[in-house]
From TrEMBL, chain A:
Signal peptide positions on this chain: none
PROSITE patterns referenced in this protein's UniProt entry, alphabetically: ABC_TM1 (PS50928)
Name of the protein in its database record: ABC transporter permease
The UniProt record lists the keyword Lipid metabolism: no
UniProtKB/TrEMBL annotation, chain B:
The protein, known as: Peptide ABC transporter permease
SUPFAM superfamilies: MetI-like (SSF161098)
Coiled-coil residues: none
Record family assignment: Belongs to the binding-protein-dependent transport system permease family.
ABC transmembrane type-1 domain location: 95-304
Chief localisation class: membrane
GO cellular component: plasma membrane
């Protein structure tokens, strides 16, 4: 068992202990567990079919039969909210996964090799940073065509620069450390040094950024769905449900309330866990508000 | 200072060049022929040929880009595929609506965030501080369009105080403008306020722990004087940046809020252009917003360097 693995296990224990100690982070973690269960088993757990139209039950207020009420087509809102959790999680995970892999790779090469490569890559990231997040995502989806996959790609692209910057900043400090210079002097290849020595030492800020970005990605997906650029009907998405329900909101408050509350709770849970992870792993990193400002 | 300004100007120029390239390439990413896609069922060979020629799509890609760049520099962003009107005019027409919403939202945010952030830092650990932290966590997690919908439900549906949507120009009827802007501005403003509150609080806390603040307190100055004369002046320097960056991002059009409240600004224009597949208008709106964003960031950096000379040294 290498020393590195032991350190990682120690860090994992520290993270879990910190999450258990912080009541807000614990609540956030529990919400996320429930969300994953609902996301994975939504179709089986949902009390009704998501597209079961029932004209006799149109715009029914919350009741025992329909705890979140019914929509303008008589469909059960609770079932649709539950099944839509999968879409939010899926888009969040895949888009942040894209941003993490692409951004961290670019940041790793830029920070490690410096010079012209660093200049070119970071100027490209500056260009992407010059666009407000949602505007760029809307423009990308607009040209590629609306849908789940394009929404994931668009959100992935707009969050790539933040990962590139966080990674590069970490690499710049790690590459000057004695153990990296020692690895160079014994003839280790650049790729090996990056993989074995640099990456594990910049994992903490990347984990924190991933957790916070998941919250922003879910908000972005909800906004794209609200604009009709995400998941297409009749499949449910929280943002789309809000958009469809906005015309009835003064007569049927539940159509506007429950899908929005689901987005809020999910994003809040990711933010609470992200904040707690930051406090344990990387206390110098930005707070959620500051991170959001830097990606706005 | 002069060297810093020149360096920042050159950096911004390079980024702006990259922005024009990205915006130009957007049209190239459209699967198939963008003019044909845009015309859809209204296809007519004459209009099609005219629009293609006007957009320069019959030229090689490199020629197209430099032509686009040359025209953009002179303020010509092409013509709308839908109306045939110049894109620059269409985009600029929408600017006042977005500007009035963004400025009102930022003023609202500052009115909420400054007292809350300052009191929360001075009385760190108090009930107000806890309330401020809950508020800022709420603000960064809540979807603004959900808050907008809940606002419509409460202030329009239940109380009947404010109109649910629509726009009246400030110059036309200031009273009706105010009643229409209140809900969207408060919606956007609350999210901005939560970000600002957290920033003001942490900036104040940082300055409060400085030696010169302790000195001021030690020589017997009243808390009010210490806070106003020594803490606020220094703590607010970085806050200026945040306020300006927030304003810049709101100028980019809060697309979802403008769509929800039928507010005819840049965001709504972008949404309509997407729905109508009017790519030149989409490109024009995105380019203008990104250029504005860059300009505000540049001005903020220069202002910041003037307020805090250590920046130019860094």
């Amino acid at each position: 068992m290498s020393e590195q693995t032991i350190n990682h296990e120690g860090q994992l224990r520290r993270v879990l202990a910190a999450l258990r100690r912080d009541p807000l982070a614990l609540t956030g973690s529990l919400v996320l567990v429930v969300l994953v269960v609902v996301g994975v088993g939504g179709s089986w757990l949902a009390p009704s079919g998501i597209n079961e139209v029932n004209v006799d039950q149109m715009l029914q207020p919350p009741s025992w039969a329909h705890p979140f009420g019914t929509d303008e087509l008589g469909r059960d809102v609770l079932s649709r909210v539950m099944v839509a959790a999968r879409v939010s999680l899926q888009v969040g995970l895949v888009s942040v996964g894209i941003a993490l892999v692409v951004g961290a790779t670019l940041g790793l090469f830029a920070g490690y090799y410096r010079g012209w490569l660093d200049n070119v890559l970071m100027r490209c990231m500056d260009v992407l940073f010059a666009f407000p997040v949602l505007l760029l995502a809307v423009a990308i989806v607009a040209v590629l065509g609306p849908g789940l996959v394009t929404a994931m790609v668009a959100i992935g692209v707009v969050y790539t620069p933040i990962f590139a910057r966080v990674t590069r900043a970490g690499v710049l400090s790690v590459r000057e450390q004695v153990f990296v210079r020692a690895a160079v002097s014994v003839g280790a290849s650049d790729l090996r040094i990056m993989r074995r020595h640099v990456l594990p030492n910049i994992a903490a800020p990347l984990i924190v950024q991933t957790s916070l970005s998941l919250a922003f990605a879910i908000l972005s997906e909800a906004a794209l769905s609200f604009l009709g650029l995400g998941v297409q009907p009749p499949d449910p998405a929280w943002g789309r449900m809000l958009f469809d329900g906005r015309g009835f909101v003064t007569d049927a408050w539940w159509l506007g309330f429950f899908p929005g509350a689901a987005i809020f709770l999910t994003v809040l849970a990711f933010n609470l866990v992200g904040d707690a992870l930051r406090d344990v792993l990387d206390p110098r990193q930005l707070t959620v508000s500051e991170a959001r400002r830097s990606t706005a | 200072m002069a060297r810093f300004v020149i360096r920042r100007l050159l950096q911004s120029a390079v980024v702006l060049l990259g922005v024009t390239l990205v915006v130009f390439l957007l049209l190239q990413l459209v699967p198939g022929d963008p003019v044909r896609v845009a015309l859809g069922t209204r296809f007519d060979p004459q209009t099609y040929e005219a629009l293609r020629a006007r957009a320069g799509l019959d030229q090689p890609l490199v020629v197209q880009y430099f032509d686009y760049l040359r025209r953009a520099l002179t303020g010509d962003l092409g013509v709308s595929f839908r109306s045939g009107r110049p894109v620059t005019a269409i985009v600029l027409e929408r600017l006042p609506a977005t500007l009035s919403l963004a400025v009102t939202a930022v003023v609202f945010a500052m009115a909420v965030a400054f007292p809350l952030g300052i009191v929360s830092a001075i009385r760190s650990g108090s009930l107000v501080d806890h309330a401020a932290r809950v508020f800022s966590q709420f603000g960064v997690s809540v979807p603004d369009f959900w808050m907008g919908i809940m606002g419509i439900l409460l202030f329009s549906g239940v109380l009947g105080w404010l109109p649910p949507s629509g726009y009246v120009a400030l110059t036309e009827d200031p009273g009706r403008w105010a009643s229409h802007v209140a809900l969207p501005a408060a919606t956007v403003g609350l999210v901005t306020a939560s970000i600002l509150t957290r920033f003001i609080r942490s900036s104040m806390l940082e300055v409060l722990s400085e030696d010169y603040v302790r000195t001021a307190e030690a020589k017997g100055l009243r808390t009010r004087v210490v806070v106003l004369r020594h803490v606020l002046r220094n703590a607010l320097i970085p806050v200026v940046t945040v306020v300006a960056v927030q304003l810049a991002s709101l100028l980019g059009g809060v697309i979802v809020i403008e769509v929800l409240f039928a507010w005819p600004g840049i965001g709504r224009l972008t949404y309509d252009a997407v729905a109508a597949r009017d790519y030149p208008v989409l490109q024009g709106a995105v380019l203008l917003v990104a250029a504005l964003f860059l300009l505000v960031n540049l001005l903020v950096d220069i202002l910041y360097a003037r307020l805090d000379p250590r920046i130019t040294v860094k």
